[in-house]
Structures are given as structure tokens and as C-alpha cells.
Amino acid sequence: MVVVDQALRISHYSANVANFLPADFPVRLGEDIPASFCELVSQLGSEPGRRIQYEAVLQGPAGLLDAVFIRNAQGLVLIEFFPGFHDECEPLPLLTQGVVPPASRSEADSQRQSLLERVLQQTGFQRVMYYRFLEDGDGEVLAEAKQDGVAGSYLGLRFPASDIPQIARVLYRQNPWRLIPDAAADSVPLIGREAVVPDLSCSDLRSVSPVHAVYLANMGVSAALSFPIVVGGQLWGLIACHHAEPRQLGLARLAKASQDVRSHTMGLSAFFAQRRMQLLDGLVRRFSQAREIVHEAGDVVAAWGKLGAWLAAEFSADGAQLCMDEGDVGWGEGFEESALAFVDEWFLGQNTEQVWLAESLPRQLPGYPLSRVAGVLAVKAKTAGGQLLRVYLTRHEHIHDVAWGGNPDKPVERHDGILGIAPRRSFGKWVEKRIGRCRPWDNEVRLLGLKLRELVMQLGRD
């Protein structure tokens, strides 16, 4: 790696640069980079995170070199050099002829598996997984493809949020891929004019975290490759590739695999957008029935017998309760009196959200009394007459099994003193019996909750 400042002079370089660059490429701190490279830098622009890759830019001691030019957040340019690999077999052709979003969940599942098979063939890695981030930050392997003879499977297993910390998730979102050719390789020092270390967030050559290196070793992984799945600006998932031996890939092959993942992500985003539009279109029709129920009864309170049953069916709830200044009415099996008083006081006094979801009240609300209710969708809205109404749609405890890749609550393991705290050593299937939680609320419930709030505001008793 060579780092160039705004004056196109070398501010930093990696200690191994002489092993890659030809003798006629001067690498001295404060020196100008060659004129041909100045022209390449000028094409990069000034936007942080911008990157351009070039093939066969130099003839190094060991062969042709590819290069990636990256503008970092400090305005510096990172120039990364990679072995060319131009004699490798021709990668699969790009799938760029339009992005066709899946028409259904089953088709989305099929496209997901097809993508993994393609990435497996494209990269030559032994195992490729489709890793989805859940609402609570944990992750789950939704699909998997692997080469013949690869033992074991992570399909259907969950991994705790701590396995991929937030700082790593930010870096995944900022970069088209992250390749670790050899997790056990020693880090190479970066030599600079100043003690200030350049920002390497967008660098593919940044060293591997020691803890992550041990984590991979514990999984039996020497090389790792990841592609982000970014939906709506958020890191929705990852394509994670594992290999038991060190493995380097050329930039062309990485770029083609990355393009396939991006095409898949575009289709997935379009699928989510279509589903959201279909949901919004259907909400008017669905909630018109609720308005008719209230209109026939005269007001919300009088209608609650029928309206509560309708809400419970729409939201797959076990109970529906309405709280007002003068009391409450309910339908089904909702909160007991003490639990309702506790949650209502907290929702009014300490929660600023207008729509709030909980799947484990005993864990989320310290002091929550013993109750049959484990989860709730809570909505509060002020009517035209100024009364603040609260609606609680409740779900009972749902005892179920969750399969993890290793025990997520295993006591912290100590390393030999070099790293301090080491990651988990076991990733075998470990089944947790989950109690104190309700059935999970799906991703559409918050949107339905907002529509319910709008309904309450319009129909609430003055």
C-alpha cells in the first residue's frame, strides 16, 4: 500500500512495498508519485469512499499488478496493489441484463440459493452462506452452498450480535467486499511521515483484528470473504465465504462476484418495496372494516367487543385492550390488572414512542409483574377532543427452540494472556429453549401499528 496526500506526495507506505513494486517506482516519504499515477488519482474525485480499480498497472518483481485507488475520509488516497491473477480461468459472465425482483417469498428463496451457488463457483471458496441480521442484532444463516466433501452445516443456525460488533458492521456497509486471504498472516507495519495513522476504513488491506483472527481459527477458517447486502441504507445481511486454506482472488473475480451480490440486493430491495406498496394499498381496505364497526356502535369504547376481536385477528394477538383516562376495556386474554397498570404507567411516563413493540416484557421492563403476557404492540394517540388513548395488543408466552452456532451465553473464555478475552471456541449446534418471549412480530407490524394509531386518532371518543 502507498498513501498519497492532497499534494500527490507519499505520506505513508507499507513496509513490504519493495516486494511488490518495481525498482523504478520511487517509494520515499514526501516524494511525488509517478506522473502516470497522478492522472489516475485525478479520475478518483474528492468524494470520501470513492474507489476505482485498474488492471495490470505495473509490472512487479513477481508479475503484473492490479491496483485500487481509494479516497479516504481524510482526503488521502490509498493505493493498494494486488497480484494480477490474469491467467486464471475466465470468471462467469455478469448478470447485468436487468434486475428482476422475486414475485414471492418462495421465488426470493430460490434466487437466494442461486446466488450462493454462483458465488461458490465464482470464488472457489469451500462454503458460502447467506447471513441475515435479525431485529435484535443477532444473525441467522438462511441459506448455504458448499463444495463436495465439506463437512458440517451452519444452515438455520443463529449467531449472537456480539460475533459481529457494530464497528465491523459499519465497515461492511462502507465497502463492496472484505477479503482476508490468510487470517494467520502477520500484520505489515505502515511507515509514515507523521505518527497519525491514516483512515483505513475503506481499505481491503487493513489488518485483521486479532480477536477476529482467533474467531476464524476456531471455526477452522483460514481465508474469509464477505459481501454486504445493504437494503434501505442498512446492513441487512452478508454473503459470507469460508475456506480452510489461505486463498487469494484477483480483483476482476471479486468485482464480478460483488456485482452479482449488488444485483441480487437491488432485486431484494425492489421486492420489499413492492410488498410495502401492496401492504399500503391493502390497508385502506382492511381498516375500512374497523371504521364500519365503530360507526355502527357509535364510538370506540362501545365497539370494542367487535373491534378488539378484529384487531386481534389482524395482528395475530391474544388480547386487545384500550386504556382511557376513565378506565379501560378489553377483549380476549390481555394483561392482568397489575400488569396493565405497570405497562401503562411506563408507556405514558417513560416511553416517547407512539408505537412500541416488545417481544419479551420480562427482559425489557425491569420489575414487570408475573403475567401470561410476554409481548405487546403498544399504540398511543390523542383524539381531536384531547384525550390520550392507549391500545395494547398482547401475545402470550411462546416457548420454542432456537438453534445457535455454539452457546451464545457461554462464559467468557480467557486466552493465553496475549489477547485477553478470546472469542468462542465451539460453533456446533446448540439448542436454546426460549421462554419469557412471545411469537416474533413481523416487519410489517410497525407499519400496521402506525395505521392503527391513525385510526384511533380519527375515531377516538371525544
TrEMBL record:
Record GO terms (molecular function): photoreceptor activity
A biological-process GO annotation: detection of visible light
SMART domains on file: GAF
Pfam short name (any one): PHY
Domain Phytochrome chromophore attachment site: 107-247
Listed name of the protein: GAF domain-containing protein
UniProt keyword terms in alphabetical order: Chromophore, Photoreceptor protein, Receptor, Sensory transduction
PROSITE patterns noted in UniProt: PHYTOCHROME_2 (PS50046)
